[in-house]
Amino acid sequence: MSRVRAVDGLVAGILTALGVVLMSYDIAEFDGSAWLIPVFAAATVPVLWWRRSVLVVSGLALAVMVLHDLVFGWVTRCGAGLPLAFTLAFLGALAYSRTKAWVNFALSLLLCVAVLALDTAAGVGTMVLATPVALIVFGVGRAARHRTFLNRQLRARDEELRRLRDERATLVVADDRAQLSRQLDGLLQDRLEQLARAAESAEGLAPAQARTLLEQIEVGGRRTMDDMREIVGLLRGGEADLTPAPTVAHLDALLARSASSRLTVTGDPRSLPATVELSAYRIVEYLAGSLGGLEVAIRFADDILEIHVNGSVSRGADVRAAVTRARERARLLGGSVDVKLTRGRARVVAQLPVPG
Predict the structure, then answer these.
(1) Is the Cβ–Cβ distance between 108 and 85 less than 8 Å?
(2) Backbone dihedral region of 144: left (phi > 0), alpha (psi from -120 to 50 degrees) or beta?
(3) Which DSSP symbol is given to 119?
(4) Among 67, 178, 218, 244, which lies 20 to 30 A Cα-Cα from 264?
């Protein structure tokens, strides 16, 4: 907060320039001392550091202006001194809470008195006009401070909402995995019970019947292993309810729900591992829920499946959550998702490795 910014230099520069011009006029008009300029500048230059303490700057400006009165007497100061006082009143209202702001405002009014006390162009009577102007400037500063405070609160709430959305997206993926884990556990228990019953029934059978039963047990065991592999593959991809699992070939039907969507396929289209096909479908599905006017391009390469999604961000759409889920999906396969948001449009590139 205490760092000097470009706008601070601009404000201090303008006030100092006004003082130089006015004091140069006083030197020429009243045959004044050349020290008029540097002494007056000692009141304006400290405005550079108002972010550290406006009260200190205002107190210093008041002290310098009193010194200016005592040393140089009757000269014209209002043209640069009053803008300095009004500026400090505004900055104090912007920087401080109520009590300190009013203390700084009182210093600004005293600065106005010091400027006008020995002024040849105006007089102390001008305070009748200077006081309401200072009050207006002070009020503008208070309004600006209140608006800044509200903006900070809104930004903080926005960040909190984004964090909650990210957490919600993570919980959704975790819930999918939990459902699939329960499905795997139920499948194993059911198949093992079937195999156990079949094995118990083999006792006392003829050799030919026993051989047939053992062949059935073998077929059932292989089917159980195949089902386990499929479910474990889906578990790695984070999906739960997929009967049958959608593939890249189903993207046409998914995008057909939106009349303005378009799908382009390049490369060497072929059947890919179920987890890759499923992940590609889900990534597009997540993004389709948050983007409109989708342009989807699928590129089949030798060792990678590349997905380009380009669309407009729908009003109220939770693009961040959709991208989070897409990234989680791709990361489980060792892939990646890159997104770029520009002028209300999102460009997403997902890359999924294809096992050799």
Answers:
(1) yes
(2) alpha
(3) B
(4) 244
Q: What amino acid occupies position 355?
A: P
- The reported pTM is 0.51
Q: Which residues contact 44 (CB under 8 A, 6 or more apart)?
A: 12, 15, 16, 18, 19, 61, 80, 84
Which residues, 6 or more positions from 324, have their beta carbon under 8 angstroms from its beta carbon?
165, 166, 169, 170
CATH number of the domain located at residue range(s) 248-353 in this protein: 3.30.565.10
| Beta-sheet strands, E only, within the chain | 262-267, 291-300, 304-313, 336-342, 345-353
DSSP state of 244: S
Give SS3 for 78.
helix
| 63 burial level (CB within 10 Å; 0-12, 13-18, 19+) | middle
Of 267, 276, 228, 222, the closest CA to residue 248 belongs to 276
Work out the number of other CB atoms within 10 angstroms of the CB of residue 266.
12
Please say whether the beta carbons of 54 and 71 come within 8 A. no
Domain locations in the chain as residue ranges: 6-122, 164-237, 248-353
pLDDT tens per residue, range 155-199: 888 888 877 777 776 666 666 666 666 666 666 676 667 667 766
341's tokens:
């948001």
The CA–CA distances, whole Å, from 269 to 249, 277, 302, 305, 352 equal 10, 12, 10, 10, 15
Where do we find the tokens 């202006």? 65
pLDDT digits (tens, 9 = 90+) for 286-301: 888 888 888 999 999 9
